[in-house]
Write a structure and sequence with these properties.
By secondary structure, the chain is α/β, with parallel strands linked by helices. It contains eight helices and nine strands. The strands form two sheets. Strands 3-2-1-4-5-6-9 form a seven-stranded parallel β-sheet, sandwiched between helices. A two-stranded parallel sheet has the order 7-8. Helix 1 crosses helix 8, helix 3 runs parallel beside helix 4 and helix 4 runs parallel beside helix 5. The structure holds nicotinamide-adenine-dinucleotide.
């Protein structure tokens, strides 16, 4: 309890799924949480989660949107202690059947969104001399995925960007880690479709995970309990990639 007492957290893609679960746990741990999303649902999610959670409309692919969101959070709360780059999209398709439009769409959200987020928030954290950035990658960022070429490419990119940013920002007291969930019970699972069906039977723990089980790991990385963890991958996949 109270592992995030007094901290200001910004969680993208917080309207539902893992982002909403992270906002709930963060608020329970004492943080003020701003959830952002391009879905209108973000407002009702914030209302449901209580007074410690507020919502902002936000498209993570847009540089101007990031400037507005960071400015609003800093104007309201003075600083940002935790950034969770959680927003993401899944599109299936191997190398040969991924259109350029699909490639660009997935890169814009999953990769450029994370880049813009870290770049916008790092100077705010540097002023305080501390901060924790958690980038949500995937087990698709640990191995190849024949049926989701663009998705896997972006999740590997997030892993590399995390390590690079961690090395750059460590002297400023800012930690940067990536989280690699396996198969998680969120609305995205419906989009994973046959991909999820094919791998679920191979999960050694014998089940998919809840969004809260990922959020517990993100809470650890957001809090000072993980003060010496930075620049690395944290896997939560029921041993699927073990
Ligand atoms: P989800 O689809 O339930 O939630 C993703 C959220 O991101 C949605 O609310 C969506 O509106 C938001 N979003 C998408 N594009 C956006 C944009 N341009 N700007 C702002 N918000 C945007 O899925 P989830 O499972 O909660 O996914 C969270 C993260 O976990 C994603 O990065 C996803 O790639 C990753 N992940 C999910 C699984 C899984 O099995 N569900 C596994 C590994 C990794």
């Amino acid at each position: 309890m109270n592992r995030l007492d007094g901290k200001i957290a910004l969680v993208t893609g917080g309207a539902r799924g893992q982002g909403a679960a992270e906002a709930q746990l963060f608020a329970d741990a004492g943080a003020r949480v701003v959830i952002t999303d391009r879905l209108d649902e973000v407002d009702t999610t914030a209302e449901r989660l209580g007074d410690a959670v507020e919502a902002l409309r936000h498209d993570v692919t847009q540089e101007d949107d990031w400037a507005r969101v960071v400015e609003t959070v800093v104007a309201g709360h003075g600083r940002i202690d935790v950034l969770v780059n959680n927003a993401g999209i899944f599109r299936s398709g191997g190398l040969r059947d991924t259109s350029t439009d699909t490639w660009n769409e997935v890169v814009a959200v999953n990769q450029t969104g994370v880049f813009l987020g870290m770049r916008a928030v790092a100077p705010v954290m540097m002023r305080e001399g501390r901060g924790s950035i958690v980038n949500i990658s995937s087990i698709a960022g640990l191995r190849g995925v024949a049926v989701a070429h663009a998705y896997a490419a972006t999740k590997w990119a997030v892993r590399g960007m995390t390590r690079s940013a961690a090395a750059e920002l460590a002297p400023h007291g800012i930690r940067v880690c990536s989280v690699h969930p396996g198969i998680i019970d969120t609305p995205m699972l419906g989009e994973l479709g046959v991909v999820a069906d094919a791998v679920t039977t191979r999960i050694p723990l014998g089940r998919i995970a809840s969004a809260e089980e990922v959020a517990q790991l993100v809470l650890f990385l957001a809090s000072d309990d993980s003060a010496y963890c930075t620049g690395h991958e944290f896997v939560v996949d029921g041993a699927l990639t073990a």
